[in-house]
């Protein structure tokens, strides 16, 4: 049986084998030249341009999208997001006034709390030892000393606060100073507490006499105390008279 003839669309008889077709195709599409020339030979890996998606394939035959159309509008998206962030950050109308009012209220409360403390500190009375010398002796020391000695059994005690010369036997040209003079038993017994300066923290002295005579010695009084207080002045007088055996309870 005769072999069927292979015709192409133009009615020409095509070579029956690949070996017969290859020389013509190679000669037409691969001319002898040293320069690279594009050919119409389809690639086995290249997609059909007519069926490729123009949105993702630049080799597609259809209209290619522009750069602006192929990516999201970043500026537009940013512009949309910014108002949202601003709206979130915006505390709303009247918030500034509320914050200011809250801050003012806190400051007022703090001021109200501090006011009583400051007032209490201002109203704190000074210690009696910080009062003027004469006021301290006349209003605090003399009354307290009289009470303390009477509790020890001394009766008819006469206390005075005078500025006069130091009356000690053998002392010539004696200076004047403030003294507390105590007498009892009709003046037969007497003691003197001397303040050589108008200051209870200054130098102090003590003397005593019996049977109405002048004091025979002048001795220091509370010289070891760094700071003299009302209680120390009371204790010093009681201890000194007690050591002299002049208190009734001895």
Automatic annotation (TrEMBL):
Signal sequence segment: none
Residue numbers spanned by region Disordered: 1-127
Segments of skewed composition (Low complexity): 44-61, 102-118
PANTHER family: DUF2996 FAMILY PROTEIN
Protein name: DUF2996 domain-containing protein
């Amino acid at each position: 049986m005769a072999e069927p003839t292979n015709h192409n669309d133009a009615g020409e008889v095509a070579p029956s084998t690949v070996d017969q077709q290859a020389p013509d195709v190679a000669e037409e599409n691969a001319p002898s030249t040293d320069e690279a020339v594009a050919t119409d030979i389809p690639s086995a890996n290249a997609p059909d341009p007519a069926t490729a998606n123009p949105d993702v394939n630049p080799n597609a035959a259809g209209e290619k999208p522009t750069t602006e159309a192929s990516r999201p509008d970043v500026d537009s998206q940013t512009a949309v997001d910014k108002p949202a962030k601003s709206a979130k950050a915006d505390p709303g109308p009247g918030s500034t006034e509320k914050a200011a009012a809250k801050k003012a209220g806190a400051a007022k409360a703090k001021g109200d709390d501090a006011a009583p403390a400051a007032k209490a500190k201002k109203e704190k009375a000074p210690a009696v030892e910080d009062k003027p010398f004469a006021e301290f002796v006349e209003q605090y020391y003399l009354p307290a000393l009289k009470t303390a000695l009477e509790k020890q059994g001394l009766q008819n005690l006469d206390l005075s606060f005078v500025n006069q010369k130091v009356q000690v036997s053998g002392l010539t040209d004696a200076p004047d100073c403030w003294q507390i003079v105590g007498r009892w038993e009709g003046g037969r017994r007497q003691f003197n507490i001397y303040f050589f300066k108008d200051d209870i923290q200054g130098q102090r002295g003590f003397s005593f006499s019996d049977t109405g005579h002048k004091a025979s010695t002048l001795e220091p009084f509370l010289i070891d105390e760094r700071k003299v207080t009302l209680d120390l002045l009371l204790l010093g007088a009681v201890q000194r008279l007690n050591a002299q055996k002049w208190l009734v309870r001895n």
